[in-house]
Design brief:
Blueprint: H1 2-23, H2 28-106, E1 111-114, E2 121-124
Antiparallel strand pairs: 1-2
Helix pairs in contact: 1-2
Keywords: Membrane, Transmembrane, Transmembrane helix
Length: about 130
C-alpha cells in the first residue's frame, strides 16, 4: 500500500513538473501559482500515505500483541495440564507402591492388577 501511494505521488509530481515546464514559457505568474498548488497537493498526498502506513503498522502491532497473548495463554494451559497429568501419575505410582508394601507386610497371597503400560500385569505378594 505504501509503495502504491509513493508511486502515485511520484507520478503526480512528474505530471506537475511537466505542466509547469510547459506553462513557464507563456506566463510565469500562472506557473508559480500552479507550482504552489501542485506542491500543496503532493504534500497532502504524502501526509495521507504516511497516515495510512502508520495505521497499518499500528494494526499489525495490535495483531502481533494479540497473537503473543494467545500463545502465552495456550502455553500456560498446556503446562497446567502437564502438571495435572504428572500429579495423577505420581499419585498412581504412590498408590501402587503403598499397596505392594501393604501386601508384603501382611505376608499373604494377594494379587493386584497394575496397568502401567495399558496392559494388565499380575503382581503377587509372596506369603
Amino acid at each position: 500500500m505504501s509503495l502504491y501511494c509513493l508511486f502515485i505521488v511520484s507520478l503526480l509530481s512528474l505530471y506537475c513538473l511537466f505542466i509547469v515546464s510547459l506553462l513557464s514559457i507563456y506566463c510565469p505568474f500562472i506557473v508559480s501559482l500552479l507550482s504552489l498548488y501542485c506542491l500543496f497537493i503532493v504534500s497532502l498526498l504524502s501526509l495521507y500515505c504516511l497516515f495510512i502506513v502508520s495505521l497499518l503498522s499500528l494494526y499489525c502491532l495490535f495483531i502481533v500483541s494479540l497473537l503473543s497473548l494467545y500463545c502465552f495463554f495456550i502455553v500456560s494451559l498446556l503446562s497446567i495440564y502437564c502438571l495435572f497429568i504428572a500429579s495423577l501419575l505420581s499419585l498412581y505410582c504412590l498408590f501402587i507402591v503403598s499397596l505392594l508394601s501393604f501386601c508384603s507386610l501382611l505376608k499373604t497371597n494377594i494379587y493386584v492388577r497394575v496397568c502401567c503400560t495399558g496392559l494388565p500385569v499380575q503382581v503377587a505378594c509372596a506369603g
